[in-house]
Design a protein that fits this description.
Elements (H helix, E strand, L loop, with lengths): L7 H9 L4 E4 L2 E5 L4 H7 L7 H23 L2
Antiparallel strand pairs: 1-2
């Protein structure tokens, strides 16, 4: 599957956040958002782009959680 160029930075952010998953007694909860600004600065993303990129990253996070939860039931 091809990735649209508009999604490059969101995927790059999501990938760089891959070590920041929070885990509780029931399993994965979600990403540690405290790390997001650090990663965005390291990626040299202009601050004006942060809100939209964060929303895009959250879409990837939510879908990843949905898929991982659906696999537990199979």
């Amino acid at each position: 599957m091809a990735l649209w160029p508009d999604n490059d930075r969101a995927l790059a952010l999501f990938t760089r956040m891959s070590t920041q998953w929070r885990v509780g007694p029931g399993g994965v909860i979600g990403l540690d958002y405290a790390a997001v600004p650090v990663v965005l600065r390291m990626m040299a993303v202009p601050r004006a782009d942060w809100p939209a990129l964060f929303d895009d990253m959250r879409t990837l996070e939510i879908e990843t959680l949905r898929l991982s939860t659906s696999k537990k039931g199979t």
